[in-house]
Amino acid sequence: MAVSNTDDHFRNHGFILSEGGWGLSPLYDVNPDIYGEYLSLNVDSDNADIDFELAIEAAKYYGIEKKEAVRQVDLVKGIVRNNWQILAKKYGIGRGEIDRMKVAFKVCEG
């Protein structure tokens, strides 16, 4: 959601079994999409909008309290907002391409 990734189908979600039980795998196969408005999978029963407020409201369905959902959203938004351009430059992506991709990260602004 933070990078407008619209390729979030079931095969791009994984789990890892550890001694403590099953947990989500680290993030993989994520591609910022400048045209991304909707996720492939719904956030709640009928909405796939790329919208952090929707994710916060739907958190209760996943056993996450609203306060914790807000904390996690703020954390993710801050990490993405403060680092994506730095990483892009580090890996040799030019200024023009970075400027073109800014729209994919708009949900993390502010």
UniProtKB/TrEMBL annotation:
InterPro entries: HipA-like_C
Keywords from the UniProt entry: Kinase, Transferase
Domain HipA-like C-terminal, residue spans: 2-77
One Gene Ontology molecular-function label: kinase activity
Pfam family, one: HipA_C
Top-level division of the source organism's lineage: Bacteria
Name assigned to this protein: Toxin-antitoxin system, toxin component, HipA family
Protein source organism: Catonella morbi ATCC 51271
